[in-house]
Structure formats: structure tokens, C-alpha cells
């Protein structure tokens, strides 16, 4: 049987040759992502903004009366409710942010949820509430704080592990690649204004773990090659390492993608955002493993001595000075 | 590396089959098949987002506990000093600024007063509950110690948790989970609930019932202006009562609290046929109620529920039976809810619902079906890709993947963990990531073959050299998984659980098991060439 080889054997792509332009583009993308996050902002769901998201089904109607709901709920004085189709045509999601007057009143969120459900069921007896997420301002504030800590801590802990297992340059490289992946994912969510919820944070934390898989494979090969080809110039050696592991990098990302794609296309509607974030993160993570994590080692000054204990290096130099070598 | 003695093979298979078989009760129960009893075993729990149900987070405000303690202290101090022989007279009592302060009419009595109050100040527990200071020579100031207040909050939350449990049990729901969280919070999880609003109403009702005498000297004009006589306070009527929007002036002290009830039932008033709540006091409460009603025949008293007046009837005659009837604009439902709340006792503090997640049973069912379908198709694609790319090694990876999924489910069942909707995404992610180890191993074997190594050496090296990166990658995933677990609650935690268990099982199946199979094949067939 002839086996499938998606990546040809013995590729020799000179990734490092374009490292400066690629880096400039990536840095610009990171900057643009943060600019988007800061100016346009993330479209916080109830988890982070407080308020309520209610999904429900109009059992006896073909299409949910979205326009009418917008009018009736708009008159409740709760600000602009976001009413969208959710799943089937007769299913809706009603999202209402916590009004500013609710600040310092933890009971307000729950009161408003009851008010919304009562208003809708008063006009449509066939309305069945499928889910109700109500989060008070206090809880949403805690979620925001916890999320930031979890993301920062995960990135730092993983970078520290890479530092311990490899060398500090690799730790910095991994941290940078992770920062790139997280930034671009956030940027995409700001750009497309997709709902940003706790699930998305969970997805980003998973990305932080998985996007580094490819980086580790490349780094592992770099370490191996550094010991093997002690005289090879670093850019050449990095190119060799990336090329040697290219099939792996592509295949591991591909298996993740094909596993997730059906879930994205016809999985439960409430998982869509989370899966989309993971898929996005896989793309970004694969790119950053090749174009970010490896080239940065050139600038950080990795040498073939990086994996030789320092004393040995010093001893060698001493010996050299004494003219023994 | 490729040496697998018989004992090793037997134990590896034993672990694999044991954990994989443990998944069967969960799978059959998810697909609605009943197992015979001998084959049944522990199953994974379904999270509320899949099974349907309500998750409610309640929070108490500790400053309310402080205010109540202050009020009780005032009542006790007044009582003790009044009953002292001879009586110690005080004036200018104030509970402002979270402290109780009062003036001694005779400054020379300070030491005697201090002695009398010492038991109150020290409290009954191990910590001192109050600090006493004397200002300007004749003013005593009592403030709560931090430890005393903390202890009071803890006690209040403990008893609030009990009350919440009793109320939910009274609803007759199955398997509720009620857990204290942090200092001032209670998590309530109730699966498969028909009417979450009923539950919320029940939890939102403090049910602090008080009987206080109406201040007969209050002028309607003063009440309208919001002014109360000294020793009195204005309490609003409840929205459902007949006098909604109005206030009643009641005596602040000297009433009875309704926390000494032995029973509460919804019933109907014999004359008006209006829904009412009948209550029965315990012996002590009954005696005090009898005394209050005897001393105040012909006077009005207010029935106050959660700081709102329900009604303010007359004591027509002494009530000596130890039972009474509360009326005031109830419906059958609201009377019934109040009866449940009163039976289970008053909450020592108000609880506010600060988070609610409710999922209907149908939505959860749909999610499982859609998730399982997507997982099946995703697995199929992974399997096709792996076999097409790595041939025999892809087949081994596929079998390992099958065991992996079963083992994750089996371990989850053993550990009694919960499968949530994001947990399904965790399964799919695990499926896609578990074969990564096989990719790394197979690619390395390819490479070793290209370098001209013989089959056995290439396979051996493939496993050995790939293991390093597999190990490192799994550790970083584990770090992220642990943070995910610590960060998340409920559904997100279910995601983390699947990912973390999947990391361990995937190393076992994708590295250890496949190596055993490959070793067996190499030993039996001794192939000179492998197609990888």
C-alpha cells in the first residue's frame, strides 16, 4: 500500500531567510490585535459583563418572532437587548447586559431575568425556556479577574518549564510564541465581535497547552542538532530542524483540526465559540512554532555551547588560553 | 525497549481492559439501555448543562449579621441593666457606626455595669466577642471583635446551609447538591427541575417572622413624613398586602421572633375562605406569645415578614393555644411557599442569588446527541488520516485511540467525575491530540529508516527519541490543564477533567500499548522491511 505523505520528504524551505519580515508582520499583528481589543473591545457575554442570557424555543411557531421580541423587551427599560436566532429557526437567545443602575445591587440580575421571562411568556404561551444564565456584576467581576490571572500564570508556568527542560532562550521563545497565540486569538474575537465567555478562556488555556506541542517538537530537534552539528551556523541549523520536523508539525495540527471540524460544523450550538477559538488557536499556534519560536533563538544568541555545561566551556577556554588545544 | 515479558503483557492488558470495561455502564446509560444488575457499575455523572437542572450561587451580606448582632446586644444590655439590683439607668442609646454606645446616668455605676456585662462581652465561645471602652468617663462603647463577627458569620452560614437543605428537601427534588463556598456563599445544584422559579422564590425568602406591637401613639401625619417616635420604627407594608405602599409604626423592641415554630401549614380562613398560613409555636414561644397577647388585649400588633408588614390585626383576646393564623393577601402558592419557609426555619441572613445557570432537560439531550455525532465523525476522520499516512502503525494508533476513549470514560466513572458540555469538546480534543504521540513516533521511525537503520533498531529508536518530546508536550498540557481546573467552575472544570485524564491515558495507550503491539508483531513476523 502506498502511504500518504502530505509533506514531502527532505523539504528544504528556508524559513529563516525571511525571519525579519515575518517578525515585523507578526509584531504588527500582535500590536493590531491589542489595538482592536483596547479600542473596539471584546464582546463580553454575561459571564464577564453581568446580566442574563436566556435561550428558548417557540414550540408552536416556525420562526421566532425576533422583531416583536426586540420591541417588547426594548420597552422594559433595560437597554438594548441582543436577540438572535440560536440553533433552529424557532429558537432564540436573548441577551441583556446589566444596566448601570444595577451596580452594587447583586439581586438585580436575577430580578431582571424573571422580568424578561415573564414578559415573553405573557405574550407567547408556547415559549419554553431552554437555558437561563444570570450573572450578577459581582460574580462577573471575579470571573474577569480570575481569567487574567489564569492566562498569565499558565503562560509563565509553561515558559518556566521549557526554561528548565531546555535553556532560558527557549523559555523566552516559548513565552513569546504563547503571547503571540493568545494575542491573535483575542484580536480575532475583538475583530469579529464574537461573544467572549468563560468557555473562550477555557479554550485559550487549552490552546496555551496544545499550541506548544509543535514548538516542543521543533525545540527538541534543535537541541538534538545543536549537539550533533556543532559547527553549523545557527540559522542553517534552525532551518534544518524546522524542515526535519515539518511533517510532524503539520500532521499533529491536522489530526486536531479534523477531529474538531465536525464539532465546529454540527456540534451543539453552545459549543461553537469555544471550538472556533481552539481551531483558530491551532492555526496560530502552528504558525508561531515555525515562524516565531524558532527564529527568535538567533537573536537570543543560542550557541552549540548552550547545552554543554558552563564549566566545560570555561575549562575549554582556559585550556585554549594555555595553548593545550 | 521492545522487550515485553509475559507478566508485563498480562498486566498491561489487564489495566487496559479493566478501565475500558468500566466505561460500559456509562455508555449504556447514556444511550438509554438498561444493563442487568450484575453488569452494572459506577457511571459518569452528567453535568447540569447536559442533564438539565439549576445551578444557583447564593451570597449573604456579612454586614447584615453584624447589624443583627448589634440589635440583639442592645436588647440584652438593656435587659441586664434594667434587671440589675438596683437598676442601672442609661440613656442616649445609639447603634450608629456599627457600635453600641450609651450614657450612664450615674457615672459611678460604670464598674458595676462593666461587671454585669462581662459575660455578654466574653461570649460563650473561645474568642472574646466584644470590646468595651469607656469614653468621657460616663459613656460605654461596645464594638464587635473581628473574631467574634467572623464566628457569627460562620455560624449563620452553617445554619443557613441547613435551612436551604431543608427547604429544597421539602420541594421533593432528587439529589440536590448544597455546598458552602468561601466565607459567605452557598452553591445549590438541583438536577432536572420543572420550575426553577419556585426554587428561587424559596431560596430568596428569608422568612424572618416577627410580631411587634403597633405604636399606638404614632400620628398619621408623622408616619406620612417618615418620622417615628423614639423607640419606634417605620416598617413598609408588603406589596401583596392590603395596604401596599403604606407604612406602619411599630415598637422596635419587646416583640417576639417567629423562629420558635414547630409547624406551619397552608390552610384557609374559616370565615373569608382566604388562603392563610397556620403556625404553631413551641412551648417557649407559645408562652411568650400568650404573655404578649394577654398584656396587650385590644391593642394592634404587626406581623412582619422579612422587614415588611403582612398585616396588623388586633389582639382580641389572649391567645393561649400556642397557635395562630397569618393572613394578608396570600395566594395558595405564596401561602404554601411561606409555610415551607417557616417550617424549615428562618434564614439567619438574607441570601441573594448572584449567579444562576439553568438548562432545560431537552437542550441537554440535544447537546449529547449532537456532541456524540460530531465526536464519531471526528474520530473517523482522524482514523482515516492516520491509517492512510502510517499504514500498520496507523492501525495500531487507531486501536489505541479506541481504548483511550473508553479508558477516559472508565476512569471518569471510577472517580465519580462529571461530564459536561465543554467536557465533550475535551473528548474531541483528546482524540485529536492522543494520536499526536503516534505521529511523532511514526515520523521518527520513517526518519530512522531513511538514515539506513534496520527495522528493529529504527522502531526502537523511534520510540526512544520521540518519547522526550511527547513527555515534554504532555507536561505543558498538564500545566495548562491544572490551571484550567483551578480557574474553572462547573462546566469548564468538566473540560479540564477530561483533558487531564486524557493526557495520562493517551500516553499509556499511544506509547505503551502500541509499543507492545509493535514489539509482538516484530517478534512474530521478523519483517525485513516496514511500510511506514
How would you characterize the overall build of this protein?
The complex is a heterodimer of chains A (325) and B (532). Chain A is of the alpha+beta class. Chain A is built from 12 helices and 6 strands. In chain A, strands 3-4-2-5 form a 4-stranded antiparallel beta sheet. In chain A, strand 3 (82-86) and strand 4 form a beta hairpin. With 532 residues, chain B is α+β, with helices and mostly antiparallel strands. Chain B contains 15 helices and 19 strands. Chain B has helices at residues 6-21, 24-30, 48-51, 62-83, 110-122, 146-171, 196-204, 220-225, 283-295, 332-343, 361-390, 392-414, 421-450, 455-487, 491-525, and strands at residues 45-46, 53-60, 90-94, 99-104, 130-135, 139-144, 177-181, 185-191, 209-213, 232-236, 247-251, 256-257, 261-268, 275-281, 301-305, 308-311, 323-326, 351-359, 418-419. A 4-stranded antiparallel beta sheet of chain B has the order 7-8-2-18. Chain B has a 4-stranded antiparallel beta sheet with strand order 3-4-6-5. In chain B, helix 1 packs across helix 12 (392-414), helix 4 (62-83) crosses helix 5 (110-122) and helix 11 (361-390) packs antiparallel against helix 12 (392-414). The longest helix of chain B is centred in the last third of the chain and has 35 residues, at 491-525. The mean pLDDT of chain B is 87. At the A-B interface, helix 4, strand 5, helix 5, helix 7 and helix 9 of A face helix 7, strand 18, helix 11, helix 13 and helix 14 of B. Strand 5 of chain A pairs antiparallel with strand 18 (351-359) of chain B, so a sheet runs across the interface.
